């Protein structure tokens, strides 16, 4: 059974088409990474799922409940099931409250009276001593504050956690420990997770499946091994070519694909394939005809690109640029 199903999700802010027809499922107990550049709309998808935003169109189903348009009172029943961890722990923790009050907030919203025991358990689970409950968030380090955010998110035992760039505001030295913590908690507690990130090395370590977002739409999605092993969409290939790899020899041999122009504006996205203004292999059809998302391989591997064949073969922009554009890439 799926922990989450979103179908044709649309979120417009006036003329800004931040999310434009995203469909995605997360199976119980699995991690789906949502990747893409900043401005691609991935955080907006996360905020629609936890209903910090009410979608303009489409549906959001949590387990078997449609929560797309529930009001605040109706949502309370589902608050236990879905939580979010934000990018910036300093901005997401109220400095006027104690850590204990922050972590217990989801339980108090559900009118639970006895919170001291669960708060102590939740703090221990994220590697903090229960005494931290009496302190204020500004007395803690960035890494400790993000652990407090995770403790708050998990205290209600949600079936789905949305982790929105959970480590990108932290010092590099503590990023790995927070990622390890999330991976351990996910394995031990078994919640499903939407992991929103631009850091592809973290994705390879954490995710079961990957969905790649470009300018408000998904361009490719599928099992992690397929997205990393046989990426089909030119945008996915470009992202992977720019991601650091642990092996220094492989890293030195890498030629990142240059996409040239910046991400176009979501107010007036390009016609046809939205990626055509930056795609190194675009053809005429790409400028006028929207490519449909099709299954091209096992595990529901899907792609939206005119040039990818039904068996997943097609262009590889990494090879194209290796041989034709190495001067520019240097
Ligand atoms: Fe590039 Fe065309 Fe494929 Fe879009 S549809 S990714 S522009 S080749």
Automatic annotation (TrEMBL):
GO terms for molecular function: ATP binding; ATP hydrolysis activity. Keywords: ATP-binding, Nucleotide-binding, Transport. Residues 4-240 form the ABC transporter domain. Residues 310-330 are annotated as: Disordered. The keyword Nucleotide-binding applies. SMART domains: AAA. GO terms for biological process: peptide transport; transmembrane transport. NCBIfam families: oligo_HPY (TIGR01727). Belongs to the ABC transporter superfamily. This is Oligopeptide/dipeptide ABC transporter ATP-binding protein. It comes from Kribbella italica. The lineage of its organism: Bacteria, Bacillati, Actinomycetota, Actinomycetes, Propionibacteriales.
């Amino acid at each position: 059974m799926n922990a989450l199903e979103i179908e044709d999700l649309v979120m417009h802010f006036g003329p800004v088409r931040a999310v434009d027809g995203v469909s995605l499922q997360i199976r119980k107990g699995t991690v789906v990474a949502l990747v893409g550049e900043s401005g691609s709309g991935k955080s907006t998808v996360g905020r629609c799922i936890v209903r910090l935003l009410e979608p303009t169109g489409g549906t959001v189903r949590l387990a078997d409940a449609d929560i797309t348009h529930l009001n605040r009172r109706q949502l309370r029943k589902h608050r236990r099931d879905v939580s979010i961890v934000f990018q910036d722990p300093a901005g997401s923790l109220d400095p006027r409250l104690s850590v204990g009050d922050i972590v217990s907030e989801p339980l108090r919203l559900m009118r639970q009276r006895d919170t001291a025991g669960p708060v102590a358990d939740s703090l221990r689970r994220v590697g903090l001593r229960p005494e931290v409950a009496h302190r204020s968030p500004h007395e803690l380090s960035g890494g400790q504050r993000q652990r407090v955010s995770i403790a708050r998110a998990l205290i209600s035992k949600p079936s789905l956690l949305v982790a929105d760039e959970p480590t990108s505001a932290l010092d590099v030295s503590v990023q790995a420990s927070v990622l390890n913590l999330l991976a351990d908690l996910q394995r031990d507690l078994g919640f499903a997770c939407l992991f929103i990130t631009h850091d592809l090395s973290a994705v390879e370590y954490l995710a079961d499946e990957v969905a790649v977002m470009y300018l408000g739409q998904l361009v490719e999605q599928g099992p992690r091994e397929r997205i990393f092993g046989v990426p089909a969409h030119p945008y996915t290939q470009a992202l992977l070519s720019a991601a650091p790899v642990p092996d220094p020899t492989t890293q030195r041999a890498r030629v990142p694909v240059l996409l040239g122009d910046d991400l176009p504006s979501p107010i007036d996205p390009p016609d046809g394939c939205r990626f055509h203004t930056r795609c190194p292999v675009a053809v005429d059809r790409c400028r006028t005809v929207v490519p449909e998302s099709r299954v091209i391989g096992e595990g529901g591997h899907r792609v939206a690109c005119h040039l990818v064949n039904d068996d997943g073969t097609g262009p590889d922009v990494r090879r194209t640029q290796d041989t034709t554009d190495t001067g520019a890439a240097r």
